[in-house]
Specification:
Length: 111
C-alpha cells in the first residue's frame, strides 16, 4: 500500500481536510497534497509526526510505502543481481532503521 493511499485513508478516517492536516503537521498544503499523490516522500521527522497524528504504526507507515515488507519478502531485489548475503544485510539495516525511528517517536511523545 503506497504512503499516499495510507495518508488518504487515515485522513478520511479522522475527518480532517488536507488543509487541517497540513496545519497540524506544520507544512504547506501543497506539500501534503504531494505526499498523498505519492509525488514526493516526507522527511524522516515528518513520518514521526504523521504516525503520531493519525495514530499509525510507524513501521507499517514506512514499510507499507516501499516494497520491502520484511526479511521474507524482499521482492524488489533481483536474485541474479544481489547475493543472498547482501539481501540479508539490507533487511537487517531496514529492521534497525525502523527500531531507531520507533524509539525517536517514543521519545518525542514523552517530551
Amino acid at each position: 500500500m503506497s504512503l499516499g493511499y495510507q495518508l488518504i485513508k487515515a485522513r478520511e478516517k479522522t475527518g480532517y481536510t488536507q488543509k487541517q492536516v497540513s496545519r497540524l503537521l506544520n507544512i504547506s498544503q501543497s506539500t501534503y497534497c504531494d505526499w498523498e499523490s505519492d509525488t514526493i516522500k516526507p522527511k524522516a521527522e515528518n513520518y514521526l509526526k504523521i504516525a503520531d497524528l493519525f495514530n499509525l504504526d510507524l513501521k507499517d507507515l514506512i514499510l507499507g510505502s516501499s516494497k520491502i515488507k520484511c526479511r521474507e519478502n524482499i521482492d524488489f531485489l533481483k536474485p541474479d543481481k544481489y547475493s543472498p548475503e547482501v539481501i540479508v544485510r539490507l533487511a537487517d539495516s531496514v529492521d534497525k532503521l525502523v527500531i531507531v525511528i520507533e524509539k525517536l517517536l517514543q521519545k518525542e511523545r514523552s517530551d
